[in-house]
Amino acid sequence: MDAREKLAALHGARKPVLLKIAPDLDDAGMDAVAPALLGSGIDGLICTNTTIDRTGVAGSRHANETGGLSGKPLFVPSTEILRGMAKRLDGAIPLVGVGGVLTGSDAADKIEAGAKLVQIYSGLIYRGPWLLTECVEEIRRQSTESSTGAAR
Description:
By secondary structure, the protein is α/β, with parallel strands linked by helices. The protein has one domain (16-148): Aldolase class I (TIM Barrel, Alpha-Beta Barrel), CATH 3.20.20. It is 47% helix and 10% strand. It has 6 helices and 4 strands. It has helices at 2-11, 27-38, 75-89, 104-113, 122-127, 130-148; strands at 18-21, 44-47, 95-98, 117-119. It has a 4-stranded parallel sheet. Helix 2 (27-38) packs across helix 3 (75-89) and helix 4 (104-113) packs across helix 6. It is globular.
């Protein structure tokens, strides 16, 4: 963070720094990360990266492949990490919800879990750019329902 500030002074432009965490953290891991973030001066937290857990694809032909798993099997665990970090950070650091966003409802669920922004990657591959419009419309719809007291 010190290096970033020195570079900002030198170049006249401050670049945000965000940390991306894994969906494989347990409660103790989240408990350890939260206070470190609060004292770091970091600009945001991305919840989450790919997972090494293969539970979501158990029994599939490629379940034993190595590397990080992304896409729909990541949605539930990544959203739980997002929710857990939102509770621990209590709005002090903006959160970016990532992982398994394939529908507008998925994006709205990330917002509901505490994200200020939603990142989409695999969903764009499988659904195309119209997914973005769907996400914006669903987030707006749910936001309107929440503000008017309508049931979700």
